[in-house]
Design brief:
The protein has 233 residues and is an alpha+beta fold. It has nine helices and five strands; from the N terminus they run αααααααββαβαββ. It has a five-stranded mixed β-sheet, with helices on both faces.
Amino acid sequence: MKRAMYKYEIKSFKDYLKEDLPSYKISEKGTETMTSSELLSLIIGSSQNALDIAKSVLNHFEGKLSLLSKADIPTLLKIKGISQKTASRIIAAFELGRRRQAEKNTNEIEINTPKQIYDLMHPQMMNLTHEEAYALFTNNSYKLIKQTKLSSGGITETAVDVRMIIKEAVLCNATALVLIHNHPSGNITPSVDDNNLTSRIKKACEIMRIYFADHVIITDGNYYSYRENGRID
């Protein structure tokens, strides 16, 4: 089945009134009045066809910023009008947005529900095209003490060192920990490896008297909580 394409009406630069130019709109009317293609054109550059290129880029990704945000440089370079420099600017813009979302004062972060865990981790995991695993360490009040990256590229019993997780918990005086990893496929169903790793961490925490608060699987728009589903007592 052919993928539906999102078509835009392409105009020549000279066809736009001054009031319709992105550079004018952003300074005189504000970003809230602008379309995604207009905003993207300002990242692409000041060339006369920047707006047309921006529309072509969005068309390539079905009009969805969520898909564009996951694109790498080789993919962007396949689009007519996109240079290495322009592709780098687009990726940098999305990365800055992601960092802004994730930027919080650690002392203010409380994570005692799966939704709070999802809201904290989603900004830095939503655009990933590979699996990454993290551990969050908290105090008795579920205030975040530390966040540690455990693995990148896959989550298995061998990729994630349970001993390191427990060691980190002890060193930062954490009383509870949460395991988080993403499923780039969008499928939140836990795998056999997910289940085995959860079981091993739970047993290790019981021995060390550390509360294993949850294992949360994150996708772009959804999550799965082992505790919410009754799989961690």
